[in-house]
């Protein structure tokens, strides 16, 4: 977009005074026409052939010139424009045409920013208007008291009306500016919060990365130590151990690849020097206990060898983390949307090759209002976790009016020693399916 030219910058300052002069001269000409038709309707108005008419048009031009030249000094412009009113006492009843520029100048002075004390300037301008109208009244033969009262009313109207209008407009502008500054401050605050969230996310990512590496590498270290002893005395067992090492290595690479896109939620930072741990299926019991301590009526039911699957690695660390986070989010949603409703967490590992995690809550209690909270993306995050680990997630309302979340996590079946002589590619395929 091109920069505005200097002429475009001057346009508002030049046009308004010119319009004021044209309007004032047009009203003066109209007053002459009215006075010619009915002298009683506009007394003391000079005709077009009267030198006073030309003088008046010139003074009105000086008013417009003061508005244009002193636009950057609205108080001085107001006093200069008001000083022209006493100089036009020869207009008689048509003196009101001089108030057009006075009212514009007063409006500009009140609206000028930054605001400054305007009392002396407004009083001075009002006094000049009063003097001008009182003088015009005396020239037309008016009585003293009536002339003074009329002049005071004209002065109050010429200064007071623009003051009120400009005050309203200025207050609205100040309110809009305040809203804009507030929005800008809120934007900066949001940016700061995002930055804090990013830093916390990096901390969480480093924590999870440590756990993934420790989980797999510790197993690899143990198995490679056994291979050194078995390779001569138990070749078949060494082959099984080699296959398991490859399985652990493949799983670790896959987990590291998925880690960046999986970590979306922000955990509370670990205490300095505190232990770093990976959330697993076994930790869901502590999660339920914490929810019970917070007042949520939740129960936990476990079927099948859940802890054994978690400890054996049949369910990979990222899949266990996903299950843990899904239960965590589902319990949080139940507490927010159905406070006081009974909730059940069920872990079922009775079917070989999978672990089913179900969180089911009843309808909201009668009279219990859901807690206020900002809209989030809990269900979206659950779905992403399920997709990235090969799990299946289903959620929706129940027939009783509650809500249910069901996550089915695949679990790998580790090969028996007798199966290790098969195609080693099949072992890698099996490990690929443990988190998917």
UniProtKB/TrEMBL annotation:
Location of the region described as Disordered in the Swiss-Prot/TrEMBL record: 413-436
Under which EC number(s) is this enzyme classified?
2.7.13.3
| Compositional bias of kind Low complexity | 418-430
Could you tell me which InterPro entries the record lists for this protein?
HATPase_C_sf, HATPase_dom, Sensor_HK_TwoCompSys, Sig_transdc_His_kin_sub3_dim/P
Q: Which reactions does this protein catalyse?
A: ATP + protein L-histidine = ADP + protein N-phospho-L-histidine
The Histidine kinase/HSP90-like ATPase domain is annotated at 322-411
Keyword set for this entry? Answer: ATP-binding, Kinase, Membrane, Nucleotide-binding, Phosphoprotein, Transferase, Transmembrane, Transmembrane helix, Two-component regulatory system
Keyword flag Oxidoreductase: no
**Start and end of every Signal transduction histidine kinase subgroup 3 dimerisation and phosphoacceptor domain?**
201-266
Question: Any transmembrane segments, and where?
Answer: 52-70, 77-110, 122-140, 147-169
Matching PANTHER family = NITRATE/NITRITE SENSOR PROTEIN NARX-RELATED, NITRATE_NITRITE SENSOR PROTEIN NARQ
Q: What is this protein called?
A: histidine kinase
Q: Could you tell me which species this protein originates from?
A: Cellulomonas dongxiuzhuiae
Lineage here is: Bacteria, Bacillati, Actinomycetota, Actinomycetes, Micrococcales
């Amino acid at each position: 977009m091109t920069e505005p030219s200097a002429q475009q910058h001057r346009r508002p300052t030049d046009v308004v005074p010119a319009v004021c002069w044209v309007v004032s001269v047009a009203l003066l000409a109209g007053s002459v026409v009215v006075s010619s038709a009915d002298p009683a309707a506009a007394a003391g108005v000079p005709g077009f052939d009267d030198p006073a008419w030309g003088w008046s048009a010139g003074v009105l031009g000086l008013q417009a010139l003061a508005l244009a030249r002193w636009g950057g000094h609205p108080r001085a412009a107001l006093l200069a424009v008001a000083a022209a009113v006493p100089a036009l006492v020869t207009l008689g009843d048509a003196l009101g045409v001089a108030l057009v520029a006075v009212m514009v100048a007063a409006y500009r002075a009140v609206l000028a920013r930054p605001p400054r004390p305007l009392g002396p300037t407004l009083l001075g301008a009002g006094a000049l208007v009063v003097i001008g109208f009182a003088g015009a009244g005396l020239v037309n033969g008016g009585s003293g008291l009536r002339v003074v009262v009329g002049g005071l009313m004209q002065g109050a109207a010429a200064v007071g009306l623009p003051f009120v209008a400009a005050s309203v407009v200025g207050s609205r502008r100040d309110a809009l500016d305040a809203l804009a500054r507030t929005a800008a401050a809120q934007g900066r605050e949001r940016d700061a919060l995002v930055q804090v969230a990013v830093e916390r996310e990096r901390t969480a990512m480093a924590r999870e990365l440590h756990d993934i590496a420790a989980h797999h590498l510790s197993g690899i270290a143990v198995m490679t130590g056994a291979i050194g002893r078995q390779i001569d005395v138990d070749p078949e067992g060494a082959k099984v151990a080699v296959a398991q090492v490859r399985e652990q290595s493949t799983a670790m690479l896959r987990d590291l690849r998925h880690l960046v896109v999986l970590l979306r939620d922000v955990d509370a930072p670990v205490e300095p020097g505190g232990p770093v741990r990976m959330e697993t299926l076994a930790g869901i019991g502590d999660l339920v206990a914490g929810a019970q301590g917070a007042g949520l009526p939740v129960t936990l039911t476990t079927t099948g060898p859940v802890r054994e699957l978690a400890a054996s690695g049949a369910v990979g660390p990222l899949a266990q983390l996903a299950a843990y986070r899904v239960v965590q989010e589902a319990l949080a949603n139940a507490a927010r949307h159905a406070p006081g409703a009974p909730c059940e967490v069920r872990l079922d590992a009775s079917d070989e090759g999978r672990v089913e995690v179900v969180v089911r809550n009843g309808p909201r209690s009668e009279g219990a209002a859901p807690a206020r909270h900002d809209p989030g993306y809990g269900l979206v995050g659950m779905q992403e976790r399920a997709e990235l680990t090969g799990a299946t997630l289903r959620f929706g309302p129940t027939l009783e009016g509650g809500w249910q979340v069901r996550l089915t996590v695949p679990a790998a079946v580790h090969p028996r020693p007798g199966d290790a002589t098969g195609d080693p590619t099949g072992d890698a395929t099996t490990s690929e399916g443990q988190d998917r």
